[in-house]
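Dear colleagues,

For the upcoming journal club I promised to circulate an example of a predicted protein-ligand complex. I picked one with S-adenosyl-L-homocysteine because it came up in last month's discussion. The inputs are reproduced below in full, followed by the predicted structure.
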Amino acid sequence: MNGQYKIIRIRQGKEKQLVRHHPWMFSGAVEHEKSPEEIGVGIVQIHDSQDRFIAYGWHDPKSHILVRLLSWDAQVVPDETWWIDMIRSAVRRRLPLFSDARQTNAFRLIHGEADFLPGIVADLYGSTIVCIISARVGWDHRQVVVTTLRKLLNPSRIIVSTDSSFCGIEQMKETTEWHEGESVTVPATVESIRFRELGLLYGMDPVEGQKSGFFCDQRDNRARVGTYASGRTCLDAFSYSGAFSLNLLASGARSVTAVDSSAAALRQLEANLEANGKNRRIQSDAASRLTVRQADVFSFLREMETDRYDLIILDPPKLAQTKGQVEGALRAYKDLNRLAIGKIRRGGIVATFSCSSGVSREQFKTMIAWAAKDAAREVQILETLGQGPDHPVRLSFPESEYLKGFILAVL
Ligand code: SAH
C-alpha cells in the first residue's frame, strides 16, 4: 500500500455503504483527527475504525461531499493513469452500442459516478462533445478528460461547462470553456450543432440549450412510444425540442400537439421539423400534422377538453432536485398524471416519466395508482421503461438510476 497519502478514519458503524463501494463520504462519517483544511485537496486513503484500508478517495473540504471514493483496490492509486483508464473504459463500453452512426451519433460517453468518474457527464453530438461538471473533483480533472476524449474520438470541439444547479453547493464558478485544437476559447458566434438519433435529424444550441442540449436518455423510450402512435391523436407534454413529437409523426400519428413553456425549445422543434422534412426523414405531410403551443403544461391539462387525445406523453423536468423536495414533487407528478389519465380517450395510452433520482420507481408507481384512483379509471402497465444503456445504473450507486417510465393503457 502507498504510504504517501493522508489517512482518514471512519467512525465505527459509518463504513457500511463505503465498504459496499458507495462513492460518497460525508464529513459526519469522519473521525476528525485533523481539520479538513489541514488535509487539503487531493488523494487520501480511507480506513475503517480498526485501521483497515477501505478505498482511495479525493478529499476536498469545499465540496459538499467531503471525499469521493474512487478505487477500492489498495494496489490501484487513482492518479492520472487511473483517470485515463476510467475514461477510456467508459468510452469503449459505449462504442459497440452505437455501431450505426447513420442512425444515431448522439449518446452519453461518461455517466458520472456510474462510470466511476464523479460529477462528470460527457455527451457526444456528432463531432462535438459536451461535458457537464457537477463536482469540484471533475473540474480539477477536466484537462485529462479533454485530452483523453480527444485522443479517443478526435472531435472537432469539446465544450466543458459547470452545472449551474451544483455551482452553489460545490463552490464552483458558472463557466464554459471551448476546447478546440490546443486552444481554450469562447467563440464569438455559435452555430447550431447537428446530430442524428434513430435516423432523425436534430440541431441544438450549445449555449442556450438545456443541460447538455438534448435528452439522449430517452432514445429507446421514443422508439417504444412510437410503436403506439399510428393513427392516434397525440399530446407531447414538455416537448423540449420535439424528439418524442418527431418520432410520433414518423410513426404515423394522426396529429401531434407539442407543448412546452420555453420559446427557444419550440423554435428548435420547428427547425428540427423542417430539417427532417427537407431531408425526407419524415413524410411530407408531417408539418401539417403538428401543432406547437407555448404554455404551462399544468394549465394546459386543466383547460384541455376530455377525450381530445388518445396518446399523451408526460416528460416533465426534474421536479425534485433534493430529497427534501420529494413530497412536493410527488404531488405535482400526481396532478399531471391524474389530469392525463382522467381526460384521455378510453383505450388511450399514457407514457409517463420521472427523471428525479430522489423519487423511487416504487414511489412513482404508487403515485400513478393514486392518480388513477382519483381519476376513477382502471390503468394497466404495458411497459416499464428506464434510461438507455449509455446511461448505466451502477448497483453500488443506487442514485444513478434516475429515469423511470411506464407506458399505461387507460381502460
Ligand atoms: N421530452 C423532452 C425533454 C423534456 S425536458 C425530450 O424528449 O427531449 C423538460 C421540458 O419541460 C423543458 O423543455 C422545459 O422547458 C419544459 N418545462 C418545464 N416546466 C414546464 C411547464 N410548467 N410547462 C411546460 N413546459 C415546462
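Two points we might discuss: The chain has three domains: 6-71, 80-185, 215-410. The first strand starts at residue 6 and ends at 9.

See you all on Thursday,
B. R.
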